[in-house]
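Q: My collaborator sent me two sequences in one message, no labels, and asked for predicted structures for both. Can we handle them in order? The first one she listed is below.
A: Yes, handling them in the order given. First sequence, followed by its structure tokens:
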Amino acid sequence: MISIYFDESGNTGSIKKSSSYDSQPYFAYSAYAVKNEDKLNIFQKYREFIDKYKDLQDTTGEIKGNILLTKRANKALEYFIDNFVNEDMFINIYSKDYYISTLFCFLILGQRYQLTYTTEFYTLAGELSKEKKFIESFIRFIEDKTKEKLDNVINIVKKIDYVQNKYSLNKLLNDILQDDIIIYIDNTFEILTTYENPNLANVVNIPCFGELYYIIEKEIPRKNITKIQIDRINQIDNEITSLFKKVYNKEVIVDKTEQDKLEKTFLDISDNIVSIFLKLCRRIWEDINSKNLTTYTWEMTIFKKIMDKVPLKNIKLTVRKEEYIPILAFYNMQKENLEFNFSNILDSHFIALKKWEYINRLESEKLDNYIKNNFNLWWYYLQNYKIVATFNLRLRLFFRPNRLIWVYPYRTKSNPTKSTIKMSVIHV
């Protein structure tokens, strides 16, 4: 029997702009799967680690991931990786701006485009995610879904260089500006952006958590998971526990372990790994942007140590193609023990690019099978490739990696008074 401990890094709550949003552009969840019979041994080993490096403890007696990545903590970091990082770790990283951009792409282009032109769909999302004016404008639309605010978003998108080179996309955007289709958009987004807490909108934490749990279930049978525990996140933890109960009929325990040192240990380990991994990814992306690609950096050396222990299948990166590919290329290079030189770097990036395209095209096919196998839904495709189904609306928030489900009432042009229920599968 196994207990799963979740912790996060980069939390800014709702995707609505906050003072910390720009300094924390990424959000990540990690999960640490612990066999119940191993708990005491891991606890004792972790206490030895804390005692061994007392000088690194904060005022609460903990050793945080940001401390472990400092120069004075090099030996402690090595000790932590050697003793606690393993194949029982699971990680999911979200780029918040990329997440917002994929929502816009699906809203405008729809499922049929996403399924048919998968790579192009996510390439567009990646380009949009670089445009701060677009991100801010689209968030304003999410907060107040009016035709005026939607038009503001579209006018910004039309000016982006990548979009201007796409004739069909420009035509679609012009059609939206001219036609009053806000009712359709509003119906869709009203459900997607509605939570039990009315102050929340498009919380990245929730799909990130749901996706990570899906990855875990591929490796660990649901019947073997006896406990799921998350660290406390103000307001959002209640939303997660409620939705998880409705979808999986499982309880999620919110951290109440202040007096339970044994249980808190596993949350601390999960907290450390997610903090370390996310910071390493960000630093590597910075190195790549600065063209520092001919020698191993210290960050790459540490990253290699972690990737030697955590399987790639346990890691999900919901980020731009330009961020995903270097990580995958680096992983392939170190697995094949290739020399870190310019030629091998180029070759590895090319192979990683092709793999990225292949993965994006496969995901849609796998998604259909997952629906049938896990939720026993009766469904079929219509001519317009929408999926028809009736089930709990909240299911949309917990799905397979990189996807959400939304369900919405939809009125057809031929019969605007009659509503049907449609389910759309969204890659985010």
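Q: And the one she listed second?
A: Here it is, processed independently of the first:
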Amino acid sequence: MAPYFWLALLLLAVAFLLRVDFIYYILYVLVGVFLWSRWSTPRALRNLVASRTYARRAFLGESVEVTLTLSNKSRLALPWIQFHESVPPELRLEESTQHVISLPGRGTRSHTYHVKGLQRGYYRLGPLRLTGGDLFGLARPRLGYLPPDYLTVYPRIVPLTRLGLPSRLPFGTIASHQRLFEDPARPMGARNFRSGDSLRQINWKATAHTQKLLVRTFEPAISLETTILLDLHTTDYERRDRLYWTEWAIVTAASLATHLVNQRQAVGLMSNGVDPLRLQEEARQYDDVTGRLLFQPEAAGQNLRAYMPTAIAPRAGRPHLMKILEQLARLDARETVPLYEWATTAGIRLSWGVTIIAITGQGDEARCNALHRLARAGFNPILVAVEPDANFGRVRERARRLGFQAYNVSSRADLDRWTPGGARPAGVAP
């Protein structure tokens, strides 16, 4: 503004001293342009509406299209608008997010860019910073912004093609001595037709052979649910490569949950990790390097239990699986509650007979004893240790003596060929 002021003052002086009327006309035009710019540009900027459209959830490595839309609701044109969208580095940016455009009155412009999630997490997109002004720079640039939005990147999922779990024989199907339920996947024989039997149960081949009306019978079974008990207590993992193995534990949990849901089984999730999203909005911080939402113990105080995620009850279906994956995307490994203390407490919330897949670092004596208590309480625990252990045969034998099965799944190959083969609690007949 100052250069134009001095220019106008100089023209006025020249016109007055030289008595050149033409210079007065130039001065009038300059003053008019200045006043118009100072009046119209701020009003047009106040009627500028920005929006962001994108899919709020994505799988690892999936490209997400983000569309920024700028709409001028005023009849006055905007000569130039500069916008810049902040994107965390862990979301690989495929196009530039900084551009300069112009908007006519009642006009709309859109800009599209793509990001790709390279690591699971809960990321912030934005804010979108806006700067606008007039063509000649006579009006003061106006600043504005669009509040940030958030993108959830699901953890990596390993397809389990050889897990050895037929769709009708999940982890949680065990034999029962009580004839409350009959499993159609377990035919046993035939019996005489009784009043109230369904016609669909009639064994027509046996009926034709014996000349008696016979119905099929099946072995009694109870179809139980599965809950994944994900251990993210940091000291339950070896200090070396702790970050890698906790991430692998999350991948294992996501892969098992996906497989069970695809097999039309009910699955739930419980974890002693922390959820940074439970912090107050003003206390949330994002890593400068990765862009992920971080958990700050100083903001949470010392009561880390308050930031442990709530249990997700077992259910079947794709929408429920997305809920589990979203929770796994946000979890952080912290020193909260050890598995051997937390497992028994977690079991209180579960129904009797639920299969519990405990995913942890190693199968030491304390963790095996915790699962033994769950087995004695009527649950069907399975230990999955994700850290490599050359002496895991001892762990497997200890688990067998305590009434459950144990597996060492430290690589994708281990996870792919893992065949539990119908683990059952001790004392339950096959």
